[in-house]
């Protein structure tokens, strides 16, 4: 064998080893599908602290299981700065207190930080806006990072059209939103021997319709309905050996009815 052929053989062998180390078996998950009707009730206070800088705080109650049980209570606080009539950005913090129906207790709170950037333009009486939100959620319970990431990163993209009716207090709107995972764990054969890898996929499609109602200068109401298609993966490993125990693609169709009240100082 010539030196050239020997070098080619060595290179091919090394590439095979490298590619083999990163190769991952494709797994086909079992699938489950559920439907749920949900509800939301929210109250918030908004205050323009200085010109173009708005502060907001609120609390939200969420119901699930066909609006038959409490899902969570969220408290939030944030700020938004309007750079000009076309662009604003902001950030907010959310404390999520989940309710366990089985134990009838509040536990496993989560901390969420959102960073928002929004572009907007008005065409006639219609305002179009595109909001990009980087969502980071920190868990307080102990989790296997091969099953659930902590923190979890999500990019939420929302396109919204709001119509201002002439001589009316009502402003109807439509929205469409995509939630994209940024660091979801990929399934592996054995998490104790495999390298942690992340996956990216659309975890939620949301279509929403609603209407805002201006009661007075300081009081606002918002009525809305969301139709969500949620997709996630339940990955389960054997704790003692680390072998893959279960892998399920969970699909859920959610119908959410909500009402929000806002007091503007």
Characterization of this structure:
By secondary structure, the chain is mainly β. It has one domain (about 30-265): Porin, CATH 2.40.160. The chain is built from one helix and 13 strands. The strands form two sheets. Strands 1-2-3-4-5-6-7-8-11-12-13 form an eleven-stranded mixed β-barrel. A two-stranded antiparallel sheet has the order 9-10. A hairpin with a 2-residue loop joins strand 3 and strand 4 (about 85-100). The longest helix has 20 residues, at about 5-20. The termini are far apart.
Strands of the biggest beta sheet: in what spatial order? 1-2-3-4-5-6-7-8-11-12-13
Q: Quick one: how many beta strands?
A: 13
Number of domains: 1
Alpha-beta classification: mainly beta
List the secondary-structure elements in sequence, H or E: HEEEEEEEEEEEEE
Radius of gyration, in Å, reads 24 Å
Please render the helix and strand layout as text.
Blueprint: H1 3-22, E1 30-50, E2 53-64, E3 69-84, E4 87-100, E5 105-123, E6 126-139, E7 152-163, E8 170-181, E9 184-185, E10 198-199, E11 202-214, E12 219-237, E13 244-264
Q: Could you name the key traits of this structure?
A:
single chain, 265 residues, mainly beta, Porin
Could you provide a short overview of the structure?
With about 260 residues, the protein is mainly beta. The chain has one helix at about 5-20; strands at about 30-50, 55-65, 70-85, 85-100, 105-125, 125-140, 150-165, 170-180, 185, 200, 200-215, 220-235, 245-265. The protein is globular and about 85 Å long.
């Amino acid at each position: 064998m010539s030196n050239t052929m020997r070098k080619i053989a060595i290179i091919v062998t090394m590439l095979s080893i490298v590619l083999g180390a990163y190769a991952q078996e494709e797994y086909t998950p079992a699938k489950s599908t559920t439907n749920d009707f949900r509800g939301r009730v929210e109250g918030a206070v908004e205050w323009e602290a200085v010109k173009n800088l708005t502060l907001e705080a609120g609390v939200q109650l969420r119901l699930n299981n066909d609006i038959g049980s409490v899902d969570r209570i969220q408290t939030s606080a944030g700020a938004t700065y309007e750079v000009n009539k076309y662009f604003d950005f902001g950030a907010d913090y959310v404390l999520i207190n989940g309710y366990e129906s089985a134990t009838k207790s509040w536990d496993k709170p989560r901390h969420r930080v959102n960073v928002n950037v929004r572009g907007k333009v008005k065409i006639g009486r219609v305002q179009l806006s595109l909001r990009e939100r980087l969502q980071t959620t920190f868990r307080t319970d102990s989790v296997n990072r091969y099953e659930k990431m902590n923190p979890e990163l999500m990019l939420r993209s929302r396109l919204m059209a709001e119509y201002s009716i002439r001589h009316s207090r009502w402003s109807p709107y439509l929205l469409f939103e995509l939630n994209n995972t940024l660091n979801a764990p990929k399934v592996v054969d054995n998490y104790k021997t495999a390298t942690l890898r992340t996956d990216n996929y659309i975890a939620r499609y949301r279509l929403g319709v609603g209407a805002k109602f201006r009661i007075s200068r300081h009081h606002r109401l918002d009525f809305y309905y969301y139709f969500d298609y949620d997709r996630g993966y339940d990955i389960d490993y054997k704790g003692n050996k680390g072998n893959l125990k279960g892998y399920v693609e969970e699909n859920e169709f959610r119908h959410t009815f909500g009402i929000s009240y806002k007091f503007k100082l």
